[in-house]
Amino acid sequence: MTKFYELSTAERIDRLRVEGAIGEDGLRVLTGQAEALPAVVASNMVENHIGAFPVPLGLAEHFVIDGEALRVPMAVEEPSVIAAAGNAAARIARSGGFSTSVRREGVVAQIVVTDARDGDGVDGGGKEGADRSPLDRLTEYVRAHEGEIRRVARQAHPSLERHGGGLRGVEVRGHEDGFAELDLLIDTGEAMGANVVNTIAEAVSVHCISHIDGLDPLMSILSNESAGQRAQSVARIAFDDLKTRDMDGDRVARRIVKAARFAWVSPLRAATHNKGIMNGVNAAVLATGNDTRNINAAAYADLSDRKRTWTKWTIDEDRSQLVGVIDMPLPLGAVGGAMSTLPMARLSLALLGHPSAARLMGIVASVGLASNLSAMRALVTRGIQSGHMNLQFKSLVMSAGARPEELDQVVAGLRADPAHADLAMAKRLLQRLRAESK
Ligand code: MEV
């Protein structure tokens, strides 16, 4: 059977239809641009809407995650990202695929208060208890009235408990400069839950402020830190599946471990290493209609001088395998927001078999790990450019104005002289081709 990557776009869509991976709705969305993001949908999502900004959607093949074979939708403008993820996934699949585990404890909302006498707030001076710090006042109230806080939270969003979520924890913390915060840990069920969490936080804030004297409510907002919404994925690759034409697999594996270690010791390198991971993570997150900014904020908040990246690579000498682990916050949802509104996001989720939010977290973590492996394998063997070149030449030739039927010949011309391949050369080659075919 012809390989997926060898088919034309129309043939790939038809193969998905024949396989039952997409139905009539999916077919319409993939073949009709207007269906992909109707103006009536988009204009109700953002302000001053004038159009849509499509980026390519592709499928990274060969993923086997917890025993299930998947093609993962990825939306990304950068050439090679999808091929690289699929290439690493194939090597990993030959040793059994990815094993994932997920923690989904909830999203934290911060209700931040200061002393009303510090200015800018309602003057609470003179009221009973106003001589104590905001932290003491908040702590005392929460200790005595946690049940009431839970009731207010429930009433603020009654449907959350029906969907398996709800308030899971309440904690008070103090800070320097007189800041105090009441943290609510909220299980958002299958949703990412920003609106639910912020609605509950604002309701609890109003309740607390009306019952505690002398506090100025500064803000109520979820934290994107997301330490409790984490996914881990582990992959093994036999040395033999890492070899290149010029380097044996054992050597490639050890060089990958070194490259990964270097990201832990060099902040300059860590930034790039992490960009490679986020190439895959962001593309899969965007394809499913999740909030890429939330995922990036959460992921980078996990890093510090002591933890410079989310992946670790080691050697299993007994089994002659390279072992990779990724562990990162991924506060994803599987329903609600753009996931339910955007036809393309709905299609991606359907292609993934309508995963739960936890399952989606494991899938996205695996894509991040695969992207990391692919980048490092290229870097420590033949270098990154040779693999990138083909697709980059294609974009150059398209920018030069080539028609699809002219693409291959002009790309071949650029490939013959890569040192001088640029837009001007692509234009010259195109002119020559057209002159010759007159
Ligand atoms: C390019 O988009 C990403 C890489 O630079 C990642 C890396 O260096 O690990 C190839």
From TrEMBL:
GO molecular function, one term: hydroxymethylglutaryl-CoA reductase (NADH) activity
Annotated coiled-coil segments of the chain: none
Keyword Protease: no
Record keyword NAD present: yes
Keyword terms: NAD, Oxidoreductase
Enzyme class: oxidoreductase
Catalysed conversion reaction: (R)-mevalonate + 2 NAD(+) + CoA = (3S)-3-hydroxy-3-methylglutaryl-CoA + 2 NADH + 2 H(+)
Pathway terms, separated by semicolons: Metabolic intermediate metabolism; (R)-mevalonate degradation; (S)-3-hydroxy-3-methylglutaryl-CoA from (R)-mevalonate: step 1/1
Gene Ontology biological process terms, A to Z: coenzyme A metabolic process
Enzyme Commission number: 1.1.1.88
Domain of life the protein comes from: Bacteria
Family of this protein: Belongs to the HMG-CoA reductase family.
Protein's UniProt name: 3-hydroxy-3-methylglutaryl coenzyme A reductase
UniProt organism field: Bifidobacterium bohemicum DSM 22767
